[in-house]
Amino acid sequence: MTTHSSRFPASDPRPVEAARARKAEPKRLALLGATGSIGRSCAQVIAAAPDRFTVASVAGGRDGQALARAAIALGASYAAIADPAGYAAHGLRPAIGGEDELRRWSGEGTRRGRASPFALHLDTGMSRLGFESLKALKDAMARNEAATGAGLLMSHFVSSEIPVDPINAAQIALFDAARAAFPNLPASLANSSGMFLDARPIYDLARPGYALYGGNPTPGAPNPMRPVVTLTVAIQQTRWIEAGATCGYNAQWTAKRRTRLATLLAGYADGLPRGAGATDAKPGAEVVIGGRRCPLVGRVSMDLTIVDVTGLPKEKVKPGVKAEFFGATADLDDFATRSSTIGYQVLTALGRRYRRDYLSLPFGQSV
Fold first, then answer.
1. Same domain for 336 and 198?
2. What is the number of domains present in the chain?
3. Are residues 129 and 21 in the same domain?
4. Which of 74, 199, 210, 236 has a C-alpha 20 to 30 A away from that of 294?
5. CA distances for 80 relative to 93, 101, 123, 336, angstroms
6. 234 and 111 within one domain
7. What is the tens place of the pLDDT at every residue in 74-129?
8. Which domain holds residue 26?
9. Residues 73 and 194 occupy one common structural domain
């Protein structure tokens, strides 16, 4: 019996509004982190505003394929390269981050008899993907004579959510040097948090991901985004326990008074953080039931989670009543922080056992 659900309305348009306010509006926005339900929501946004969005990350599976089809229809999608033939066959444009990748992609273009567009990815500090230096990038392009196929110059911020981190300025300087070396290429550096930096590193293509789903791109400051994803889970059963009684695996939480507990129909198999519940050693996350914040207690189980509802009247905690984990009344980032994780992980971990309701709204309209 699963009665929990998640709602995915159209993504929040406010990254565009923020860029306009800073007089640094990008020509296009790239939707990132496109996996599972997030990928399907991305596809809907692309269809609603094809002149404003493209895709910068494509997942596997049915949702990823649907997203890829939406991107292909627009002729603009960038993803880290794996199999050149597969990418070319589906009209995808890879992000090239090394000379070996460049050779393979150029070879695929030769085999197909035409140059295939791609993005050049320069590593400016992440040490994860991308050409390791501007010199390595320029040398590789010269050796492979592939400049005519390049359609984008990109890099990735390390710490843009911390505006005072000096690495932001260092990355912008390195990226500006790369832009000078490839002046005819559109440029892309800003992720969600990068769009809110005072330096305005918006350039031609911005790549907000988390912010489009209501996550706060400015930690420590008020969230400029609207809630987008709502997760609700039904109460299955309630019970009273006496002071001194424990709940959950390994008896990690002890009641300090006579306590009413409600058991919710979702657990870590559904993507909830196992450490979201309070223990005797630490507080945990909270959910909203009947307009009131209620703490999760004990270890989150595979399929079940326990919440302290002592202060709520009986009619507010009947079986079937929904607890909101995050949404309009429960903050996503607060839930993640109290669960010792980040909102990105919470969203991407949402399991397939949830019933998903996708709200079709005109682009720019919120719930």
1. no
2. 2
3. yes
4. 210
5. 9, 10, 13, 28
6. no
7. 444 555 556 788 777 777 889 999 999 999 888 888 888 877 889 999 999 999 99
8. 11-213
9. yes
> Domain ends where: 179, 213, 247?
213
Of the candidates 91, 16, 80, the one whose C-alpha atom is nearest the C-alpha of residue 53 is 16
Whole-angstrom Cα distance, residue 248 to residue 307?
A: 11
Domain shared by 234 and 209, yes or no: no
CB distance 330 to 288 below 8 Å: yes
Residue among 306, 288, 289 nearest 298 (CA):
306
What is the CATH classification number for the domain harbouring 123? 3.20.20.10
The answer on 124 and 236 residing in a single domain is: no
Q: How far apart are CA 36 and CA 350, in angstroms?
A: 8
Question: For the segment 332-352, what is each residue's pLDDT rounded down to a tens digit?
Answer: 999 999 999 999 999 999 999
Could you say which of 184, 213, 242 is where a domain stops?
A: 213
Residue 203: C-alpha distances to residues 45, 142, 207, 311 (Å): 22, 25, 11, 52
140: left (phi over 0), alpha (psi -120 to 50) or beta: alpha
Q: Which two tokens stand for residue 271?
A: 């993507």
Q: Diameter of the chain by CA atoms? A: 76
Domain of residue 266, CATH code? 2.40.37.10
